[in-house]
Design brief:
Radius of gyration: 16 Å
Number of helices: 4
CATH superfamily: Nucleic acid-binding proteins
Oligomer: single chain
Number of strands: 7
Largest sheet: 5 strands, mixed, barrel
Strand content: 25-35%
Shape: globular
Low-confidence stretches: 1-46
Strand order of the largest sheet: 1-2-3-5-4
Order of helices and strands: HHHHEEEEEEE
CATH topology: OB fold (Dihydrolipoamide Acetyltransferase, E2P)
Length: 158
């Protein structure tokens, strides 16, 4: 499933628009739609949020709950401006990365963590021209926002 989403994200990142993507991929849209339907997995609670990331990237949308996994490519210094955030860059598909901003005032630090590690995450995606940011990877103490999380090696951080 991640391979299908990854391929879609990679194609979407190369295209300037969804309509350009459709014409670039194949001139016969009915054939493309049939093939896509055969490749797209059935939507389950996990895949709906994963597909949301690909769609948010394509449409440059923000405030979208997403779930995905990827490889940590870079560990950044903590953001100490306001609430402290652990920051890391995660490659979610070939050539596409997102910044994960994990609030460590509200959730435990993801540790141990090293470049090359694989993580899974659920949080709110905000689009930007550098790939986007995923935040709200923790519980909301006020209970007004859906709870997010990061999973590494079977351990949950929320």
């Amino acid at each position: 499933m991640i391979a299908v989403v990854g391929a879609a994200v990679w194609s979407l990142m190369r295209a300037n628009s969804v309509s350009e993507l459709k014409s670039e991929v194949t001139p016969d849209l009915s054939q493309a739609q049939s093939e896509a339907q055969a490749e797209i997995p059935r939507v389950t609670p996990g895949t709906q949020a994963t597909n949301a990331l690909a769609l948010a990237l394509a449409e440059r949308r923000s405030n979208v709950q997403v779930q995905a996994s990827g490889r940590v490519t870079r560990l950044l210094s903590d953001d100490k401006d306001g609430s402290r955030h652990q920051r890391l860059i995660v490659e979610v598909s070939p050539g596409h990365t997102v910044l994960i901003a994990h609030n460590i005032d509200l959730a435990p630090r993801v540790a141990p963590l090293a470049e090359g590690d694989t993580i899974e995450f659920f949080g709110e995606y905000e689009w930007n021209d550098r790939g986007g940011v995923v935040h709200w990877t923790h519980r909301d103490p006020a209970g007004r926002h859906v709870a997010g999380w990061i999973r590494k090696g079977g351990e949950m951080f929320h």
